[in-house]
Amino acid sequence: MSIKIFNKSKMRNKNILLKGFIVAIMAACTFSASAQQQMQYFRQDNQHGLNVFETTKNDTTSFKKLKVKVGGNFEQSFQALRDQNTAIAATKTGFTGNVNSLIPLNNGFDLAMANLNIDAQLSDGIRVNLTLYLASRHHEDTWVKGGYVQFDKLLFLHSAVIDDIMKSVTIKVGQFDVDYGDQHYQRSDGGNTIYNPFIENYIMDEFATEIGAEVYYHHKSGLFIMGGITNGELNPTVIAPTKNDSATGKVNVYAPAFHGKLGYDKQLSQDFRLRVTGSVYIDQSAASNTLFGGDRTGSHYFGVMSNQNIANGTTLNNANDYNAFSGRYNPGFSEQVNAYMGNLFLKYKGLQFFGTYEFAQGRTITEASMRSSTQYAADLIYRFAAAKENFWVGIRYNSVTGTLQGVPNAVTINREVGSIGWFVTKNIMIKAEYVNQDYLNYADTNILNGGKFNGVMLEASIGF
């Protein structure tokens, strides 16, 4: 769920209130700089958070009293991209001019993005998180991303049996990133780009925050399993459905969504780590499922494959760009979605590989049959020097093939990326990449026909 708490006309008041909010928290909960890092079962917002997926059951921090950590993420990028297409000139009702021409691009700085993170250790084994998007390409206002409470101990139940069970179990409740696949642990999330060795996320970006619960069981062998249930919605509703489902001929039903993960993650030796996981996400009926469109911040490739006439004729509501997700592919499975992902992560000393295979089927409420999309991705990263691994070079290949609504032939998008980067400190990162992306098999009446963009991106990022 996203909650708009300030509008553009109140930006000044927003800044004052946010500053007051932070000061109030700091005044109410006294903590030292060292205490801020002493969160239990916590992924750090800096270089030490790299290659961290689900938090482990390693109890390395003792609880003494309530602790609050106020942190943030900021990023600024410089873009030097160029795009082209071969689509034929076309007009569209409600817009003037050719809607298939591309906006001329120039080198320059993109809009900076920022997040505010508030974490609190409420009790021994109980931690809460709240994240806000302060600024992003997709909206000018401050939005609440979500918040959740994580239980790694249930000492308040005063049961020795439950205490023993919780040594292997983690429970998460609230509105959180749905743990489908492993890629969402390495993606850029608004101002938080500290975990991503590249500028952008996958072409088909599987990321959504939904209300629900997840339960993990961790075995000492390295095996783990997770089961979760959510409402299947980014924006929940209590309004009864009125639209008919084209597949059933009956009034739509808002069913819960289920997801799960089975994996093995083990440091097999001092130098070698192996992680392999399989994930599933199933939502049979929804008001508007957004598993592939749940990002509320926008792509980090600004303005590519976009049209100025469409932009001029589009009424924006607290947004900076009518095409905020440029460079991505959304299959549009808003009514029903069955998605499956396999991930392989290998790390030998400074060399690491992360691979993804994904198959998803789904449809909209106006479709009677399912469509499908398939995604492949492979990242190869080398981090050095051996003691710090604060430099890296990397390459990525990402390909998506899928069928769009109302289009009989499948389309394909391919992306190749090369990246270099440096953690100046554990909290400050700079990176550069060269990207090339091609669009194949789009109709000549589609703006993406013969589409291509390439060029260089630079980014600085801070996380604390």
Q: What would you call the structural class?
A: mainly beta
Enumerate the strands of the largest sheet in spatial order, edge to edge or round the barrel. Answer: 2-4-5-6-7-8-9-10-11-12-13-14-15-16-17-18
Largest sheet descriptor: 16 strands, antiparallel, barrel
What is the oligomeric state here?
A: single chain
Measured by DSSP, the beta-strand proportion falls in 35-45%
Distance between the termini: 25 Å
Q: What would you call the shape?
A: globular
Uncertain spans, ≥5 residues at pLDDT below 50?
A: 1-36
Order of helices and strands: EHHEEEEEHEEEEEHEEEEEEE
Mean pLDDT: 91
**Count of alpha/pi helices:** 4
How big is the Rg? 22 Å
Kindly state the percentage of residues in helix. under 10%
What would you note in describing this structure?
The two termini are 25 Å apart. The longest helix is centred in the N-terminal third of the chain and has 18 residues, at 11-28. Strands 2-4-5-6-7-8-9-10-11-12-13-14-15-16-17-18 form a 16-stranded antiparallel β-barrel. Residues 1-36 have low confidence and may be disordered. It is built from 4 helices and 18 strands. The radius of gyration is 22 Å and the shape is globular. The protein is mainly beta and 464 residues long.
